[in-house]
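Appendix C: a fully annotated inverse folding record. The material below is reproduced so that readers can follow the format used throughout the book. The structure is listed first as tokens, followed by the designed sequence.
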């Protein structure tokens, strides 16, 4: 059931649990009535959260949610014939979220899990990988034609890094002029 009070409660709890009060935040959502309710908008304003809404009749304007849905649908165990019950759907989804968050190493964040990235553990993981690669190169230099893989933590995440890099370079060019 869609309800502005439920949405407000979720946002309030998230801001507290993630310790992000006062951080520059944008909440991207659909155009549903709970998300546009005056009480919900007041809460967002109090918390300093800017609203962003999907465009009407555009299904791909939130690339991060689209990316996770693609990953979900391409899992080998995804039931292409549907779920037998609502309970089965919820159980499958809970297992998927557990795997996606705590086990799946994402290429876009240098092959660490979202949980490692979120908690900051990824820095140590990537430093250890870098050391392993340096040792491997030292022990078997014949296997290497150049430098080792870059295991530096990413400062930011982009679904389309080349376009993001081009945009950043374009902005820098205009700042110099």
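Designed amino acids, in order:
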């Amino acid at each position: 059931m869609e309800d502005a009070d439920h949405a407000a409660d979720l946002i309030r709890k998230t801001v507290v649990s993630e310790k992000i009060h006062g951080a520059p935040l944008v909440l991207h959502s659909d155009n549903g009535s709970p998300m546009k309710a005056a009480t919900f908008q007041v809460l967002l304003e109090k918390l300093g959260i800017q609203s962003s809404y999907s465009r009407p009749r555009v299904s791909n304007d939130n690339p991060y949610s689209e990316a996770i849905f693609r990953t979900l649908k391409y899992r080998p165990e995804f039931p292409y014939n549907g779920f037998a019950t609502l309970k089965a759907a919820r159980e499958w989804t809970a297992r998927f979220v557990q795997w996606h968050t705590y086990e799946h190493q994402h290429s876009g964040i240098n092959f660490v899990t979202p949980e490692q990235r979120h908690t900051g553990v990824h820095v140590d993981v990537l430093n250890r990988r870098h050391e392993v690669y340096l040792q491997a190169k030292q022990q078997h230099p014949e296997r290497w034609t150049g430098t080792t893989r870059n295991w530096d933590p990413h400062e930011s995440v982009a679904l389309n890094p080349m376009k993001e890099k081009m945009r950043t370079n374009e902005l820098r060019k205009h700042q110099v002029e």
